[in-house]
Structure formats: structure tokens, C-alpha cells
From TrEMBL:
Keywords, alphabetical: Competence, Membrane, Transmembrane, Transmembrane helix
Pfam families in UniProt: N_methyl
Annotated InterPro entries: N_methyl_site
Domain of life: Bacteria
Organism: Bacillus salipaludis
Protein name per its UniProtKB record: PilW family protein
Membrane-spanning residues: 6-30
Location(s), subcellular: Cell surface
Main location: other
Length: 150
């Protein structure tokens, strides 16, 4: 038997073992990159929601069509914050429009102090605002800024 074509059982086992090791490494890389993608996309979603929330408040603060007048004739709008449910609302005469999407919680501070209930915002005054949004996964995003009417 001089012509022995084919492979031995040991060569076959070695090839399968090497293939298993390489495929497990590739699988691990794919799983970790998928988890990383989910974390980054959640962080980006929080960033977008916080910017949208801030733009909504800025629109109320700067656009005359979204104001009403108090007894002294000053332009105002209302913010409402429920500190137990971590929900915020905005409105012209009564705050009914929810600021954040379902599934997100908010911490809202006006003039460096957290408040609960309804607050009247005077548009002539600068609005010092701190917003912290967080989701069920425990990720959060914070913004602190000043909104002025020009």
C-alpha cells in the first residue's frame, strides 16, 4: 500500500478543534459588539430626547405665541413637575403636555432647586434649568443651561 490518500482521524480532530476555537472567538466578538451597539444607541436616544425636551422648553420660553399673561400683564407659561413619578409637563395656562417619552424618567431643577408641583415661568427672566433623563437600563444624560428671551 504505497498510495494512501485521505486524512487520518487525528488530523480531522485537530482541524475540527481549530475550527471550534476560531468560531468561538468570532462569536464572542460579535456578541460583545452587539451589546456595545445597544448601549451606545440607548445613550444616543437619551441625548436626542434631552435635546428635544430642551428645545420644547426653549420654544415655550422664546415664542410669544406660546405665552399667556398674568394679572400684572407679564408673559408667562407653566411648568409642572411630579417628583414622585419623575414626570414633567409644560403648557400655556395649564401644563398638560408631557415633556418626555414613555419609559423615561426626568429630574428637573429650575434656578438650581428641584421643585414639585406647578411653577409659573416668567419669559422676561432667564431660565436656569437642569435636566437629567434616565431610562430603565440605568443610563442617564444630563443637561444644565440657561434659556433667555432675546
Amino acid at each position: 500500500m504505497k498510495n494512501q490518500n485521505g486524512i487520518t482521524l487525528i488530523e480531522l480532530l485537530a482541524a475540527v478543534s481549530i475550527l471550534l476555537i476560531i468560531s468561538s472567538v468570532v462569536y464572542g466578538v460579535l456578541i460583545s459588539s452587539n451589546k456595545n451597539y445597544k448601549n451606545i444607541s440607548e445613550k444616543v436616544n437619551l441625548n436626542q430626547e434631552a435635546n428635544l425636551l430642551l428645545a420644547t422648553i426653549r420654544n415655550y420660553h422664546q415664542k410669544e405665541a406660546l405665552h399667556t399673561f398674568d394679572a400684572n400683564g407679564k408673559e408667562i407659561y407653566k411648568l409642572k413637575y411630579d417628583s414622585t413619578a419623575k414626570k414633567a409637563y409644560i403648557g400655556v395656562s395649564s401644563p398638560t403636555t408631557e415633556l418626555q417619552k414613555e419609559g423615561l424618567n426626568i429630574i428637573l431643577k429650575i434656578d438650581s432647586s428641584e421643585f414639585s408641583g406647578e411653577k409659573t415661568i416668567y419669559t422676561a427672566d432667564p431660565l436656569y434649568i437642569y435636566i437629567k433623563l434616565y431610562n430603565q437600563q440605568g443610563q442617564s444624560y444630563e443637561i444644565e443651561t440657561v434659556i433667555k428671551q432675546y
